[in-house]
């Protein structure tokens, strides 16, 4: 038995995959999730589920944990532009609550904090971002993720809290909530629209570049970080190093589904990052992590999951 872990947001997209891999490694797992975006069906029956907002985290939730993985968040950059107060409450206050509870009741637990590659903002071509690329936030979501990173560091300096910061990059794959209507994790939503014969909405020119990482690859990094003492106090980007435009991605989804509906172009969104491509060199060298699933294969897997979930 590896020990006991707590995963906030563990019924959600990335969190549920982390939970699955923790179980496979022999950890016991308690999930704390308000089910606002997650699903109970994403979890196996042997996982303890505590249904509550992370801001209501208590001593009883964390006191026995060797590891706390913090995935709970409001994850839409665009929603944070329209609803900044909600984003502050769920992301900034939520992370503060996690660290305060650990400080008071379990300061020996290891915290793995889920940040985002979006803290770096735009990366001009042909450059590739690494962990030392400056912060360049474009939305409240990015600002609050940076705040969370700063909290990890100051709680470590003042109280000795051990942490690892992970910065996932445009994660996609099964369990992505297509029902969120494209607010976030939009690839599953695009699949739903294509399956239904509806056009894919693209905001702006479609030449925005993203670096997409498959969810199971991303989840593996959490396990590697939890089990490697050299990771403590470090920050790791989790991209693939390969950029794909929204136009290219849309064509791939239309080809996979056989949809003839095409794409429709809409006005640009505030705060939209135009280009991100990142390096996973540090994660490879320290954690032994590398992305393994190519985009075309990962998209095919996500398509099959969306079809199954829609009962088609």
What descriptors fit this protein?
alpha/beta; Rossmann fold
Can you describe this structure?
Helix 6 (186-195) crosses helix 10 (295-309). The protein has 10 helices and 13 strands. The protein is of the alpha/beta class. The mean pLDDT is 96. The longest helix has 22 residues, at 84-105.
Offer a quick outline of the entry.
The protein is an alpha/beta fold and 312 residues long.
Write the layout of secondary structure elements.
Elements: E1 3-8, H1 13-24, E2 27-32, E3 48-50, H2 59-62, E4 67-70, H3 77-82, H4 84-105, E5 110-114, H5 140-159, E6 162-168, E7 171-172, H6 186-195, E8 200-203, E9 209-210, E10 213-214, H7 215-226, E11 235-238, E12 244-245, H8 246-257, E13 263-266, H9 281-287, H10 295-309
Helix pairs in contact: 1-7, 4-5, 6-8, 6-10, 8-10
Structural class: alpha/beta
Oligomer: single chain
Please name the CATH topology of the domain at 3-172 and 214-240 and 279-292: Rossmann fold
Number of helical segments with 4 or more residues = 10
Calculate the mean pLDDT score and round it: 96
Strand line-up of the largest beta sheet: 3-2-1-4-5-6-11
Q: Could you name the ranges where pLDDT drops below 50 across 5 or more consecutive residues? A: none
Name the CATH architecture of the domain at 3-172 and 214-240 and 279-292. 3-Layer(aba) Sandwich
For the secondary structure, the number of strands is 13
CA-to-CA gap between the ends?
40 Å
Q: Assign the CATH superfamily of the domain at 3-172 and 214-240 and 279-292.
A: NAD(P)-binding Rossmann-like Domain
Largest sheet: 7 strands, parallel
Radius of gyration: 19 Å
Shape annotation: globular
Range of strand content: 15-25%
Helix content, binned percent: 25-40%
């Amino acid at each position: 038995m590896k020990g006991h872990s707590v995963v906030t947001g563990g019924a959600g997209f990335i969190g549920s995959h982390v939970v699955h891999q923790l179980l496979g490694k022999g950890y016991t797992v308690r999930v704390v999730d308000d089910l606002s975006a997650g699903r109970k069906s994403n979890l196996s029956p042997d996982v303890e589920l505590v249904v509550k907002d992370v801001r209501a985290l208590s001593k009883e939730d964390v006191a026995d944990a060797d590891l706390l993985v913090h995935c709970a968040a409001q994850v839409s950059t665009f929603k944070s532009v329209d609803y900044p107060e909600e984003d502050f409450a769920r992301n900034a206050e939520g992370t503060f609550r996690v660290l305060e509870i650990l400080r008071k009741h379990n300061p020996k637990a290891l915290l793995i904090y889920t940040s985002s590659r979006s803290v770096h903002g735009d990366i001009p071509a042909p450059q590739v971002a690494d962990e030392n690329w400056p912060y360049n936030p474009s939305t409240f979501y990015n600002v609050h993720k940076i705040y969370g990173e700063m909290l990890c560091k100051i709680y470590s300096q003042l109280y000795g809290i051990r942490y690892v910061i992970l910065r996932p990059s445009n994660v996609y794959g099964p369990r992505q909530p297509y029902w969120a209507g494209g607010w976030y994790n939009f690839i599953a939503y695009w699949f739903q629209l294509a399956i239904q014969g509806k056009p894919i909405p693209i905001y702006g020119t479609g030449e925005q570049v993203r670096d997409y990482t498959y969810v199971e690859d991303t989840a593996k990094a959490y396990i590697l970080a939890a089990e490697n003492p050299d990771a403590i106090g470090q920050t790791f980007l989790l991209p693939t190093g390969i950029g794909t435009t929204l136009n290219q991605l849309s064509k791939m989804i239309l080809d996979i589904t056989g949809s003839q509906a095409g794409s429709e172009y809409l006005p640009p969104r505030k705060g939209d990052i135009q280009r991100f491509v990142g390096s996973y060199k540090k994660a490879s060298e320290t954690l032994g992590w590398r992305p393994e699933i190519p985009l075309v294969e990962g998209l095919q897997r996500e398509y099959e999951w969306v079809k199954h979930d829609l009962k088609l």
